[in-house]
Each structure stands twice: as C-alpha cells, then as structure tokens.
Specification:
Structural class of chain A: alpha+beta
Oligomer: heterodimer
Radius of gyration of chain A: 13 Å
Number of strands of chain A: 5
Order of helices and strands of chain A: EEEEHHHE
Strand order of the largest sheet of chain A: 2-3-4
Largest interface: A-B, 22 and 24 residues
Radius of gyration of chain B: 20 Å
Number of helices of chain B: 14
Number of strands of chain B: 9
Structural class of chain B: alpha/beta
Distance between the termini of chain B: 45 Å
Strand order of the largest sheet of chain B: 7-6-5-4-3-2-1-8-9
Helix content of chain B: 25-40%
Largest sheet of chain B: 9 strands, mixed
Chain lengths: ~100, ~375
C-alpha cells in the first residue's frame, strides 16, 4: 500500500475528524459528544477542546501549543496520547 | 435499572418493502399500511427520544422511502439534534429525494447489498434490484452522505465474502457492516436454508480479518459472526432495556426488534404513553433488567456481567421461555437445541419462504 497510514500521527500531522463524525453537545447528559455512524463517544471538556482543533488547519504541534497557552500547563503528553487513541479508532485521521 | 439512558432508537417507519428477503428482521406478522403511525406521531416520538437521551436514530423499515413524509421526519430529527441514518434497500432513492434529504440534514445512508453475484442477489431479494442499488450508491457518494453498505450473510453468499467486500469498496462505501443472519422471525423460518457450514464460517473469518487489514484507513469493516457457531451468546445491545429501543410501524415500543414474538410480554404503544414512561415504567422494559430474573446457570455465572444471559428473543424463540439462558451458550444443557439445528441445516436444500404481508399478493 502506498498511502501513508492515517492512524500514525506525528507532531507535523494535520489531524481532522473522520468525515462521518460530528461534535455536538448532549443537553441530557450535559456533556460534549462525538457522533458518528452507529456510535457516540461522550467527551470531557478537554477531549472536546482537542477535537475542536482537529479541523484540518492545525498540526499536532500547534494544537499542543494552543492548549498549553489556554490551560497554562504543559499538555503535550495528554494531547498526543488522546489523539493517538482517537486515531487508532479511526475517528481522527492524519491529513 | 431506572437511570439507564438510551443512546439509540430504531424507528421502523413501515413494514412495506419492495424486497422479499427470506432473512428479514421484521416479524412474521407484518404491520399493514393503514395501521402505521402518522407524521406527527413520529415527530413526537423523535422529540421524546431526544429528551430521553437518544443520540442515534435509525430511519428504517421495511423500506423507509415508501413513506412520502420521510424528508419531513428527517428534518425534524436533525432539528432535535439526532444523528440520523437512513437504512434503505436503495430502491426509490431518486435524485430529487436524495437532494432533499441532504438539504434537511440527513447525515448517513446505509444501503443493503444481497450479494456480489447479481443473479444470486436478486434471487434473495425476490425482485430486480441490483441496478437500482448501484444508482442509489452513486447518488449517496455524489451528494457526500456518510455511506455504509450492509450485508446479511448466509449459506448462499458467505463463500463470496471477499468479492462482496470489494464490491462495497468499488461502490465507494466508508463502511461495510457484515452480519450473519439472526434466526428470529423470517430468519428462523428459513434457518435450514440460510445456516452456513462450520467450514464456511471458519474461512469467512479469515477473509474478514485479512480485508480489515487491507482496507484500514479507507473503509471500515465490521464483521458479526453467526452466534450459533460461538461458544457463548452475544450481549444484545448491552442488555435488555439498557441502551436501545425500537418503535414498530404501528407504535409499539420494543427493547429489541426481535421482541414482538415474546407473547408472554405486553408491549406498550406510543399512542397511549410517552416514550419516557415506557422506557422507565413499563413491565416489558423492566422484565429483564438487572439479573434477578435469571435462572441457572446464568445466576451464578461470572459471564452474566459480560453477556447478560444472551438474547431474550432467541431464548424465547428456541425454548418458549424468555427467561432461559440463550441456548447458544455451551454452559447450558439447552445448547443441544442449537447443535441439533446445526446438524440439520447442512443437509437441507436451499428453499426460501419469502417475506410478504399477509393478505397481499405474493410477487415472488
């Protein structure tokens, strides 16, 4: 196969949500949620903040930078680990 | 348990269908057009479902496109914030209707494929359908819907699993759902003609595993094995009345689409009660919640937290008591019923009883 493995994210990858997935807010559970065919993932606020930035406009490195500024804490490991998990499930793809 | 929040509603908008597949998941006793819920009934149900916590809506049937008000219902579902899937044969999906569905915010379309071999596909469907499905798939791709192909597997198509997966990829599917036939209703009536052999099942497992690797990143493949060949039963939707509910064309609310056959339970109707009352209060939904209803070997079995005793519909269909252990389980002496069916199935010729609505002329 010649296409790169979309599950492997590097700091320079530009992640985007799977084209079939959509972020929403569930007012019943009072939680952000990722919806996709036959499935839903209930998110915490941090997860939602990461996924909102997976819009094809930021590299992983930039997402880490934005969230580090926002939360005044080094979030690089958390972001990398979270995105790796979502990419493994193919809910986030490397652009 | 009170406090369970459902995630998924399957709305069987109609039982009418141009196809006559002998494994249809609709009950033997199909609902006729004049008994179907109105547009306003369905819109009320969708609103109540969202209020109850439902996130995923299946607009299903029969063939949901036979409802002329489908677009209005899909629009309402989207305005309530539901993620909707149209579950269709593809027949009746004209450009005008597909464009309108896109406009009102329908997100995902599932088209059924019967086989990669067009002759066998149409023999199963009981109607000329292959060209219509190809045209429908092309439209779904062109208009940018999320697109799943679903396939029911059985003895007559399981040997072509690789070709079926390749066909779905050629049609441009984002996902393919491959599910072996479940034996309730029509499937049970046709079980001896539909049941694959153990060799077929073993080969298909390898084919599916290889395809999952080959298509990774391009097309998602989910493969559901036939539970008759498994040692333990399947955990139906996380257990009875836990995550899932079905509303039938005439408004009956079920914890599973196979549940109508359980005639020892009284299922309530959205014409008489709110969805919330039915979900939380009704006897039918509470009948098999928790584990106090369980008999041995389930009651003392550690697996009861894994599979909840298996499928209540299957336990009823095969033993006459919905509180029995699912006979697929090798830990119950009831397993002999499933083993006997497996022995019998491979000796039978293929001869299908096609689905049809009682009193209507059969066209197959």
């Amino acid at each position: 196969m010649t296409t790169p493995d979309s599950r492997r994210l590097t700091p320079d990858s530009v992640p985007r949500l799977w084209r079939m997935a959509r972020l929403d807010f569930d007012r019943v559970r009072q939680r952000p949620v990722l919806l996709y065919p036959e499935g839903a993932v209930l998110l915490n606020d941090t997860g939602a903040a990461i996924l909102e930035l997976c819009n094809g406009q930021h590299t992983v490195r930039e997402i880490v930078h934005i969230l580090t500024e926002r939360y005044h804490a080094d979030v690089s490991d958390d972001v990398t680990e979270y995105l790796a998990g979502m990419a493994e499930r193919e809910l986030v793809r490397a652009g | 348990m009170p406090g369970d929040i459902p995630t998924t509603l399957l709305a069987e908008l109609t039982h009418r269908c141009p196809l006559h597949c002998p494994y249809c998941s609709n009950p033997l006793d199909l609902v006729r057009a004049e008994s179907e819920l109105s547009t306003d009934d369905w819109k009320r149900v969708f609103t109540q479902a969202r209020g109850l916590g439902v996130l995923q809506l299946g607009l299903s049937g029969g063939e949901p496109l036979l409802r002329k008000d489908l677009e209005e219902m899909a629009a309402h579902a989207r305005s309530e914030g539901l993620y909707s899937t149209l579950v269709t044969s593809g027949l009746g999906l004209t450009r005008a209707r597909a464009e309108r569905l896109k406009e009102v915010g329908l997100e995902h379309i599932q088209i059924s494929i019967q086989d990669s071999d067009p002759l066998v596909a149409e023999r199963i469907a009981g109607v000329r359908s292959v060209k219509h499905k190809q045209a429908a798939a092309a439209l779904v791709r062109e208009l940018g819907f999320a697109f799943t192909v679903n396939v029911v597997l059985h003895r007559a198509n399981l040997d072509r699993l690789a070709e079926i997966i390749d066909l779905a990829a050629d049609l441009g599917a984002d996902r393919i759902e491959l599910a072996n036939t479940q034996y309730y209703g029509w499937g049970l009536r046709n079980r001896s003609s539909l049941m694959p052999t153990r060799d077929q099942v073993e080969r298909s497992r390898e084919v599916a595993e290889q395809a999952i690797q080959r298509y990774r990143g391009r097309m998602q493949i989910t493969y559901v094995l036939p539970d008759y060949y498994e040692p333990y039963p399947k955990a139906c939707y996380g257990g009875w009345g836990k995550l899932y509910l079905v509303v039938t064309p005439n408004g009956m609310v079920l914890p599973c689409h196979g549940a109508t056959q359980i005639d020892t339970l009284q299922f309530d109707n959205v014409r008489d009660h709110s969805l919330e009352w039915i979900w939380t209060q009704s006897d039918a939904f509470n009948a098999f919640r928790g584990d106090s209803w369980m008999k041995e070997p389930c009651r003392s079995c550690p697996r009861k937290a894994v599979d909840f005793g298996g499928c209540r519909c299957q336990a009823f269909a095969l033993t006459g008591d919905a509180a029995n252990t699912d006979p697929v389980c090798t830990l119950t002496p009831l397993r002999r019923i499933v083993d006997a069916a497996l022995t019998q199935a491979v000796e039978e010729e293929l001869e299908y009883s096609y689905r049809y609505i009682a009193g209507e002329p059969q066209q197959v």
